[in-house]
Amino acid sequence: MNSFYSLIDTWFARKLRYPTQQTALLRKIVDRIRNSLELKVVLQTAVDEVTALLKLDRCIFFWYFKDLQRVQVVCERLTGDHSSHLGHHPLSQFGSAAPLIEMGDLVVSVGQLSRPMGLDLIWRRLALQTDHASPNSPNAESNADILGAPANLLVPVRGRERSVGFIACLSDQPRRWTSAEVEFMQAIAQQVEIAVRQAQLYEKMQKQAQREKLINQITTQTRQSLDLNTILVKAIAHLLNALKVDRCLVRLIEIPDDDSYSTWGLETPGINQTVYHRRNLFEVCRSSLSSSIDYFDPNGPITQWVMQHRQPVLIPDVAEDHRIGSTNVEYMLARIKSSLVVPVKANGSLLGILYLNQCSYVRYWTRDDQKLAQAVADQLAISIKQARLYAQSRRQAAESAEQARELSETLRHLQQTQAQLIQSEKMSSLGQMVAGIAHEINNPVSFIYGNIPYVEQYVQSLLRLIEAYETHSPETVEELEGLVREIELDFLVKDLPRILESMRSGANRIREIVLSLRSFSRLDEANCKSANINDGLDSTLLVLQSHIKPDIQIIQRYGDIPLVECYPRQLNQVFMNLLMNAIESLNHPQPDPKIISITTERMLDDVIDGHWVRITITDNGCGIPYDVQPKVFEPFFTTKKTGQGAGLGLTVSYQTVVNQHQGLLSFESEPGQGSKFVVEIPAKHSDLRVRNRNLYLFSRINPPATSVNPREAIAKRNLS
């Protein structure tokens, strides 16, 4: 009997080409398996080699996940007409072998095999010779139909966390597996375990590198731009590529102020994605899919669960999740089959929620998927906090800038008010002084002017008396003749009337000057009244007569202008400042003639259809340098020597014309060619339409997007 058993062992040894060849063959297969560090390549190589060696109909490699009670077929080798079984399958699909697979044991199934009675002991002994089989063990020779194969050999492969692998040798016909075949497959399984551990280590390093690369990309983007929209969009775009999901969304829990909806394209290597954004929700999806933002439910069951528990949610199949159900409209419209939801939190505060959705197939999320998604969520939490801190600092900076602007504006108003007060006080003092002088002069001048007619009458009477004496008493004594010769009576009689006429003319001139001074000071008139601009210019020229040198020619071109509703005293001061500047510019050495031209004209405004008056004062003096022109209206700015000017003349003139009379004051100047100042005043500055008209002009000169001083804009305005 022993010799018979030896004969059987020899027969099976020949089946595997002798033990020495078996060892060489095993080494060859192991070398091919270890030729790659990629897990899928390792497993596929093992399946291909086993199929060829044992002449199998099919050979597959699958992982069993105990926590999911599911089997994933990752590699297969098919011969003949067989359908593929790649993918996930429930454990129950493996029939009676399911308990053995669950325990991770060796499974040997021979199928329904008819054999002679004498050979039954042989097959029994072969089964007992295996290290993993005994007559009473569950994995002993059995009949388990797996994936349609009546005869199969399942060899466990360990070395992976939370799952057990199996090399499944499948035969379409009943088949007895020899001890040599079982031992050979166990030896291959041991080598595959080593290769799996190495591949897992390599894959782990790759996943770690991928996570670090993705985190570095997000960190770099955060450093390059603290714009939260940009950070979120690019982060979920990278995550979508890294995990090869179909949709990636992130929702901010705190709603920003932005209520916009925008769509734009984002090109990534090899994949065309589309980005959607609405309010606090961002989505990146494959270009073949439409946006799911419109029907995203912010109060959906998964969102509420994550907000309540602050824990990730893994949903391999949404149809089997009791929280979602098969009739959920949101998931049906978005065509979501699998979902991974991760909270974005920092320091216990929930900042957002990250959604990873698979639409093309049911996906069972791995630990590496969870680690990568969690790493991105953690980095997003940091980025969100930094972006919000940056936005807060920008808001504070904007508020500070606004406060600084308001303070600057207040300071400018204070400077203008100070300038106006100083000039007003100066004008008030000057007006009072002028009025006082005019009053004091007026009394004696009036007395002289009023008594000149009487003096003339008396002189004429005396002259007639002398003439009568000469007629009636032609003979005179020598003493009287000497007196007549001494006083030159004939000349005195002729010159005395002329002297009296000159006195009359002088007194009249003094009287006119007094009236002009009173008209200039306007102390005896109301603050605002209708006045003749031409008269105001004449009064100003009369006051400045002592400053006008003989070589300066004044050209007056007065037009037929209407009465202007104005403050005469302040307006006369404007004319005095402008004329005084023109006179001073002509005091510099320059060739003759020195000309100051004053023009007044009526102007019809085409904006409000109202009457305006334009006063143009032009000189051919030294002009204003270009670097000084932007500053001419600034308070206390002057180019004169210390003590010669306060820098308030043009500032007060501008405030008087623009603010007080709702007019415009502008100028043009070429250095060395002279200057032209233009005053435009409405006939009725109290009209509301005038104010609206000025706002319209300012909006055309200074667009709202830019901040320009109105004085500079008016100075640059085209006077044509």
Furnish the topology, listing elements before pairings:
Layout: H1 2-15, H2 19-33, H3 39-54, E1 58-65, E2 70-78, E3 87-90, H4 98-103, E4 107-109, H5 117-128, E5 151-157, E6 163-171, H6 179-224, H7 228-243, E7 247-252, E8 261-268, E9 271-278, E10 281-286, H8 301-309, E11 313-315, H9 329-334, E12 338-346, E13 349-358, H10 367-472, H11 478-487, H12 489-521, E14 529-531, H13 533-543, E15 552-558, E16 564-566, H14 568-585, E17 594-605, E18 610-619, H15 649-660, E19 664-670, E20 674-682, H16 688-701, H17 710-715
Parallel strand pairs: 15-17
Antiparallel strand pairs: 1-2, 1-6, 2-3, 4-5, 5-6, 7-10, 7-13, 8-9, 9-10, 11-12, 12-13, 14-16, 17-18, 18-20, 19-20
Q: Regions with pLDDT < 50 over 5+ consecutive residues?
A: 1-18, 114-142, 255-271, 698-720
**Portion in beta strands:** 15-25%
Distance between the termini: 130 Å
Q: Overall pLDDT, averaged?
A: 76
Using only C-alpha atoms, the radius of gyration works out to 55 Å
- Walk across the major sheet and give the strand order: 8-9-10-7-13-12-11
Percent helix: 40-55%
Shape: rod-shaped
- How many DSSP E strands? 20
Largest sheet: 7 strands, antiparallel
Count of discrete alpha- or pi-helical segments spanning 4 or more residues? 17
Structural class: alpha+beta
